[in-house]
Automatic annotation (TrEMBL):
GO molecular function terms noted in the UniProt entry: pectinesterase inhibitor activity
Location of the Pectinesterase inhibitor domain: 32-176
Keywords annotated in UniProt: Disulfide bond, Signal
Name under which the protein is recorded: Pectinesterase inhibitor domain-containing protein
Family: Belongs to the PMEI family.
Disulfide bond as UniProt keyword: yes
Keyword Disulfide bond belongs to the record: yes
NCBIfam families: PME_inhib
Signal peptide residues on this chain, from the entry's feature table: 1-26
Organism whose genome encodes this protein: Thlaspi arvense (Field penny-cress)
Length: 181
C-alpha cells in the first residue's frame, strides 16, 4: 500500500508540475486577439491606420504582443532606412542651400531614428516595456523634428507617406509597450 501511495504521489506531482509549466508557457505566448487589436487601435495615434495595418497584415494573428511589436518596429525601421537614404540623396542633389540643409537634417534625424529602433528591439528582447517606450518615442521625436520643415521643401508624396507611416507604426508600438507586462 505504501508503494502505491508513493507512486500516486509521484504521478500527481508530475502532472501538477506539467500543468504549471504548460499554463505559464501558454500565458507567455498567447496570440493577439481581436479584443487586443481593438484596444490597441482605439488608443493608437491614428486608429484608422492601425485597423488597416492589422487587416492588411494577416501574420499578426499568429503573433503575441511582443511579436507584433517586433514586426511593427522592423517595418518602421525599414521605412526609416529608406527615408534616410532618400533624404540623403535629395540633399546631395539640392541646389538651394536651405533645401539642402533641410534634407541633410532629415537624413541625420532618420539615421538617429534607426539607432533608436535598434535599441527598441533590444529593450523588447529584454522584456523592458518602459525602455521600449522611451526608445520608440525618441525615434518618433527624431522624425517629428524633420516633419516640421518638410512642407517648405515639398518632397515627393511617396516620401511624405513613408514619413507618416513611420510615425503611425511607432504610435502602435507605444500602445503595445504600455500593454506589456
Amino acid at each position: 500500500m505504501a508503494v502505491y501511495v508513493k507512486n500516486n504521489f509521484l504521478l500527481v506531482s508530475l502532472v501538477v508540475l506539467f500543468l504549471v509549466v504548460t499554463s505559464s508557457y501558454a500565458r507567455i505566448s498567447i496570440q493577439i486577439s481581436d479584443g487586443d487589436v481593438n484596444t490597441i487601435c482605439s488608443k493608437a495615434k491614428n486608429p484608422s491606420f492601425c485597423s488597416n495595418f492589422f487587416k492588411s497584415t494577416p501574420q499578426t494573428k499568429a503573433l503575441d504582443l511582443p511579436g507584433v511589436a517586433k514586426l511593427l518596429i522592423d517595418d518602421a525601421s525599414g521605412d526609416a532606412s529608406d527615408a534616410q537614404k532618400q533624404f540623403d540623396s535629395l540633399a546631395k542633389s539640392a541646389s538651394d542651400p536651405r533645401t539642402k540643409n533641410v534634407y541633410t537634417q532629415c537624413s541625420e534625424n532618420y539615421k538617429d531614428a534607426l539607432s533608436e529602433f535598434d535599441d527598441a528591439l533590444k529593450a523588447l528582447a529584454a522584456k523592458d516595456g518602459a525602455s521600449l517606450n522611451i526608445k520608440v518615442s525618441a525615434a518618433m521625436t527624431d522624425g517629428d523634428s524633420c516633419n516640421s520643415e518638410l512642407p517648405s521643401v515639398k518632397p515627393s508624396p511617396q516620401l511624405l507617406q513613408k514619413v507618416s507611416d513611420i510615425d503611425n507604426l511607432s504610435g502602435i508600438v507605444l500602445v503595445i509597450s504600455n500593454m506589456l507586462p
